[in-house]
Structures are given as structure tokens and as C-alpha cells.
Amino acid sequence: MTTAAPAPTGALRALTARSLRATWRTPSLILSPLLMSAFFLVVYEAQLSTLGDALSPGGRYVDVVLPLCLLTTAFTGGAAAGQLLVRDIESGYHTRLWLTPVRRPVLVAAPVLAGTAVLAAQATALTALGGLLGMRPAGGFPADAALVAATVLVGLGFLLLAAAAGLWAGTASAVSSVTLVFFPLSFFTATFVPREHLEGWMSVAAGINPLTPPLEAMRGLLSPGWTGHDLLPGALVVAAVLAAGVAAVRFALDRRTRTGV
């Protein structure tokens, strides 16, 4: 008699709930990226606002620096899915799940969904902090919600890449390498001022930096008069990262299926 595979939705709910509980029991996965981004947001706004208010939309420097902090949260907090996978691999739990009828993509989707929920909470908290520091987007609350949603979409691609790295190598250092690739890039975009105020080699670097379009799109959500055309370059980069993340996960799953490790 053949054992029927568990319903994908039921297995996904159960494993996602387990990943969320594991995240809750590991506060560093939630608090470390949030506290780091909150620290930089407060320090940047306090030290640079007097110089940057004249360069920022609406005259509020927090409108410039908050999207940067949300972007860095997207790929530092995005490591959560990979870390959860690595812990299960190191404990042997993932191997036991691999022997069950649960569909393989579900084993990755669960920690990714848990990481997405955590990232949404982090983005909401940071956006609320931005409001306390004086951020008043022209679009009001819908603009705040759109900013949180944009952060989650950007972070989802990094969550998938981190999950693929954890699944492929089974080590925390492999997951951390995803953050190490993207974090330095954030300093070679229009970090502290809008891109039109950059000059020389820094202007060129920001122009070719793949993080620049998402950052400018997120800043655009806080500005009056933006259109869908203004957000298109950022949306295309986010779509490319998501596609790369999905492809990387499939490749890592196929390799683990072939090798059994």
C-alpha cells in the first residue's frame, strides 16, 4: 500500500509555523538586523539632516535615509531563511524531512515564508520609526504601506538566495556570504543624497549599481507626483533578483536530490 503524500498546503502551514517558532526562540534573527538598521537611521538622520534637508524631497532628510535602511534590512534580515535551513541540516531534522513524502519545494518555502513574515515586521517597525523622526510621505498611509511592501518584495529575492546558499552548502558562512556580497554595494549607490547630486566616479558607480533602481523607487514612493514609470527600473531589478533566487533554489534542490547530501 502506497503512503499518500501530505497535502502541500497542510505541510506548508505546519512547517512555516515551526520555522516561525524557531525564529521566535532565536531573537537575534529578528532583532539584530532591525536594531542595526534603526541605529543607522537615527544616527544618519541626527548627524546629516541639517546638511541634507535641502537635498531631500519635501525637505526631510529621513525620506532619503529611511529607504536605504530598509534596503539594507532586506538583505541582512533576508539571511533568516538560510539560517533556519542550516540549523535543520546540522541537526539532522532536514534529512529526516527529506525522507518523508513532503514535496521538496515545501521544505524551502516554509523558512522563506517565515523569513518574509519577520521582514515585514522589521520593515513596519522601521517605517514607524521613520514617522517618529518626521517622515510624512505625500501619499500618506498608503505610501507607508507601499514602502513596507516594496521592502518585502526586495527581501524575498534575498531570502531565496540565502535559502539556496544554505541548502547548497549547509553552512552558516555560506548564508552570510549572500549578505556580504550585497551589503558593500549599498555604499556605492546614492547612499546619503539623491543620485543627481553625485559627481565623478561615484556617480558612475551608482549608475551601474544594481541596488540603485530599487533604492530610487523606494524613495520615489515618499515623493509627490511619482508614476509607475518612475518605479519600473526598480521593479525590473526586483523581478530579476526574485527570478535568480527561484532558479538558485531549484538548482540547489536538484543537486541535493541527486547527491542525497
Q: Care to give the gist of this entry?
A:
This is ABC-2 type transporter transmembrane domain-containing protein. The chain is mainly alpha-helical.
Q: Can you tell me about this structure?
A:
It is found in: Cell membrane. It comes from Streptomyces sodiiphilus. It is a multi-pass membrane protein. It is a single chain. This protein has helices at residues 8-24, 27-52, 62-76, 80-91, 93-98, 104-132, 141-169, 172-182, 200-208, 212-220, 228-259. The chain is an all-alpha fold and 261 residues long. The protein has one domain (8-259). The two termini are 28 Å apart.
Q: SS-based structural class?
A: mainly alpha
Beta-strand percentage range: under 5%
Q: Whole-number radius of gyration?
A: 20 Å
Q: State the distance separating the first and last CA atoms.
A: 28 Å
Which stretches are low in confidence, meaning pLDDT under 50 for 5 or more residues running? 1-5
Q: Which sequence of SSEs, written as H and E, runs from N to C? A: HHHHHHHHHHH
What's the quaternary structure here?
A: single chain
The counted number of beta strands is 0
Supply the number of structural domains.
1
Average per-residue pLDDT, rounded, comes to 82
Helical percent range?
A: over 70%
- Total helix count? 11
The biggest beta sheet reads: none
Shape: elongated
Keywords: Antibiotic resistance, Cell membrane, Membrane, Transmembrane, Transmembrane helix
Subcellular location: Cell membrane
Protein name: ABC-2 type transporter transmembrane domain-containing protein
Pfam families: ABC2_membrane (PF01061)
